[in-house]
């Protein structure tokens, strides 16, 4: 007899795709198994015909899924079985009258895709580590004096970078119990509204930790931008350059001591003002 189109299509699917296709009746007995992926499970087509899945897989997740499918519930799972990753479906098999006659299972071997996904994740983790190294190199935090940290910022400063800087600076202040943190903007050519706001927030956060934040080396165009943006800089200490900022910190840590005025020479006990005048 000539095979129907549906049968011929099914033959090509099970022959060329990495799937395992099977069916059971209402009692859970296998009456069909085929597919190229059966080999990974150590099976051959039609090997399990007549075998009860409920007895062979008693208490297993698969047995529970088949029972749910026989009750009318379609099931979709992703599992690792015998070293392979499977994307699986178990669905009710209905007759012409709509009654459930059994269940059909399809398992697609997605191991190659899973391996590619893991490799991609590994590369992404490596890229993230490299980006972290680059960020640390581009915004190093240096202890230039005991209790004084400086953060020289160079190039383009965006919101992501300022957020990273905030986390790093605040952590270092706590770890080293620093009293001052200098943000050196000498190498920064341009800032926008969001970045400028982040810098102000950073100085405020530094103050909340009991330290003092100082902004140094603001270039004229950056200063004009900040003024044009209407930002309140009244609470921020600014210095012309890093050297001036460091001098400011040292002066604050070592305030000048007042030298007491010399005391007048003591008057001899034998000498009275009158005798001193005659002398």
UniProtKB/TrEMBL annotation:
PROSITE patterns: STAS (PS50801). The keyword Repeat does not apply. Residues 138-249 form the STAS domain. Keywords: Phosphoprotein. Transmembrane segments: none annotated. Residues 255-279 are annotated as: Disordered. Residues 269-279 have a biased composition (Polar residues). The keyword Cytoplasm does not apply. InterPro entries: Bact_StressResp_Reg (IPR051932), PAS (IPR000014), PAS-like_dom_sf (IPR035965), PAS_4 (IPR013656), STAS_dom (IPR002645), STAS_dom_sf (IPR036513). Pfam families: PAS_4 (PF08448), STAS (PF01740). It comes from the Bacteria. NCBIfam families: sensory_box. This is Anti-anti-sigma factor. It comes from Sorangium cellulosum. The lineage of its organism: Bacteria, Pseudomonadati, Myxococcota, Polyangia, Polyangiales.
